[in-house]
Design a protein that fits this description.
60% helix, mainly alpha, 0% strand
Length: 98
């Protein structure tokens, strides 16, 4: 098996990148806060309605926007590709052999 130095370097770089991502993921993990007392304690728990958890970040709107932008971008790229193919075919018809 003949591996070039460039290929070995790429494999090693990918390995260390993945390893770094795993280590970073474990390092940023946090323990969740303790739950409020069952009866609400002195101030009836937390949140507006008693024992409610904290609201997470809303990701639905952001994902929808990201999907729409991705569809628009890919459609633009497809149209540009089709136009370039047609333009090339037209050039080949007008100027054959050039």
């Amino acid at each position: 098996m003949n591996l070039s130095i460039k290929r070995i370097f790429r494999i090693a770089a990918l390995f260390f990148l993945l390893l770094g991502g795993i280590v970073a993921q474990k390092g940023f993990a946090q323990v969740p806060p303790p739950p409020p007392p069952p009866n609400g304690g002195n101030n009836n728990g937390h949140g507006i309605g008693g024992n409610q958890g904290t609201a997470g970040a809303p990701i639905n709107g952001g994902l929808g926007i990201l999907l729409v932008l991705g569809v628009i971008y890919s459609g633009k790229r497809m149209i540009a590709f089709q136009l370039s193919k047609e333009e090339k075919a037209m050039d080949d018809e007008l100027f054959p052999g050039i």
